[in-house]
Automatic annotation (TrEMBL):
Ranges where the Transcription regulator PadR C-terminal domain occurs: 91-166
Protein name: DNA-binding PadR family transcriptional regulator
Keywords: DNA-binding
Segments forming a coiled coil: none
One Pfam family recorded for the sequence: PadR
Organism: Micromonospora echinospora (Micromonospora purpurea)
Domain of life per record: Bacteria
Amino acid sequence: MSIRHGLLALLERGQMYGYQLRAAFEESTGSTWPLNIGQVYTTLARLERDGLVRPLPENESGQRPYEITDAGRADLAMWFATPISRADRPRDELSIKLALALTTPGVDVQAVVQTQRTATMRALQEFTRLKYTSDKPEDLPWRLVLDAMIFQTEAEVRWLDHCETSLVRHRPAPLRAVDHPEAVDRAGDEARR
């Protein structure tokens, strides 16, 4: 989730100061991605630097609201019109972890998969429980976020099933001498004797 574009989308609704932006962001996403106030102000400073928002005079309470600029609206419209590429997303730590578990001596890959499955099933139950806690129309944005998380979690369970099946069928290739240079050295020592 782009915090930058999230804040621009919120400012498109109207002027807001930092704490209002944080509350609106968490309300829109069902607190799925908690946002600290430092992130809000750091992002606002960058948006101001880039000419996408402008600060307004402080109100009576000493809070400084921000408003979106025309350049900010254009940037936001471009973001909404552009699909999110999978290449733009963070690396998939789980697939990297399993790939490394397979190639690291002494790692019980089945246990790694089972530990992940247990955690994923717990997350799926929690997301499903949260989904049914409210059906008010104003909760639709965060219910859609929860739906996305449920679908991703279900896909992860299916992928873990696939990993377990693949592990059962996996027949590792015999180790070659180049994979173990110490074996080559021992063979050379024996040949010289």
